[in-house]
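Tokens for TauD/TfdA family dioxygenase. Go.
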Amino acid sequence: MSHPDLAVQRPPGRPPQLVVDADGDPVGWLGRHRDALRGAVLAHGAVLLRGLGLRDDVDAGAALRALAPGGLLPEREAFAPRQPYPGGAYSSTKWPAQQRMCLHHELSYGLQFPGTMMFACLVAPTAGGETAIADAAAVLEALPPELVARCDREGWRLDRSYGDEIGAAWSEAFGTDDPRAVEHYCRSHGIEFAWRDDGGLRTRQRRPAIARHPVTGVRCWFNQIAFLNAHTLDDEVRAFLLEVFGEEGLPFTTRFGDGEEVGADVVALVNEVYERHTLREPWEAGDLLLVDNVRTAHGREPYVGTRAVLVGMADPLHVAQLAPTAAPTATAAAS
């Protein structure tokens, strides 16, 4: 069901789309249609606005803020660097152009996370680079019942190692150079932590893997077990990191709630199901993609050329709003 004011189309294999005539005023158009757009995103899970005509990062930042009545959210616990822009927007995550970014739900390892993701394309790549999406309710339905039951019962665990040599530095991820502020954040967000002798940081957090949408009540696959997993790393890179830093020094990996590693077979299975439900549309400069972060997973395809996409996060949610069956837990202990 679409909002009566918006003629959203559902082309096969492609995201829901709306062709826009903003008459040279994209920010004004978005402001006038904000409520209708938010209703369309709730109904469809995502909507691509084509023809909006966003021209530069100032335009795009103003557009993202026009759709976020509570303001744009700052990013915490980032796993890779982003460039911040004035007003709360960010660049897309820095990820090698030749590598696919597996589908996932933004910050689904946090106690708090955005309910809405917004992607504004300023420069479209020569080839590839689509922001792929998939219906998380359909993905959940298609996964093997035994895997769903286990994840429903146990949740999933994210193990991370922060350092200057690999992964994100903890100062970048937590937005502070003060170790005490990091410890306070971890304690208040259910994250177990330990400082290494070299000043690096290790963390561990358990989160629910399945969520009930806070508005519609639809159950969704909601996690990053197939993305922030050591098996998503290139084989040679993973072997090198294991040899030099050991298993605890990997920048990230995922486990089931009981601590058993999520292996390559599970990662391949989840990504295969994602692929069967993935929708793609090549970017055009000026496009804006709106995504319900609980109902819809997103990722990024490999690309050639220059790609510039600004990201906005809005509508904060807390994990308690998702009616989790596996409660988030952690015992904070610093060494």
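The two ends are 53 Å apart (CA to CA).
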